Amino acid sequence: MRYFYGFAPYIERRGKTMDFSAVLAIIATISGITLGWLGRTKSLKKEIIQEAGADALQRADVDYIKRGVDDIRLEQRVQGQRIDALSERVTRVEESAKQAHKRMDRLEE
């Protein structure tokens, strides 16, 4: 068989070249999938770590707010007790003043 312009080596090697190309393509595809999967896993781990940090910070903030609310409630309770005590004292003073006015009225008569 006679080949023109040096095409014989290409035609004879063409089958081997395609087999090598197919294997190379399969290897490239598998490595691409593997690298993509590893990258996704790594980014997922980073996201989980960031979310966990954000959740921990949020919980700490909520705990801080709870403590503040508890302090305010305690202070409000103490303030209510002070107001009750003051109200009782004012009532006693008013009663005392009323009795004093009655005594003064008796003296004037």
Characterise this structure:
- With 109 residues, the chain is mostly helical.
- It has one helix spanning 8-108.
- The longest helix has 101 residues, at 8-108.
Our estimate of the beta-strand percent is under 5%
Number of helices: 1
Radius of gyration: 46 Å
Major beta sheet summary: none
Straight-line distance between termini: 156 Å
Query: Which class do the helix and strand fractions yield?
Result: mainly alpha
The count of DSSP E runs of length 2 or more, i.e. the number of strands, is 0
Mean pLDDT: 84
Oligomer: single chain
Q: Share of helix among residues? A: over 70%
Assign an overall shape: rod-shaped
SSE succession: H
Flag low-confidence runs.
6-12
Helix-strand layout with pairing:
Blueprint: H1 8-108
Tags for this model:
109 residues; 1 helix; mainly alpha; rod-shaped; 93% helix
Summarize the structure.
With 109 residues, the protein is mainly α.
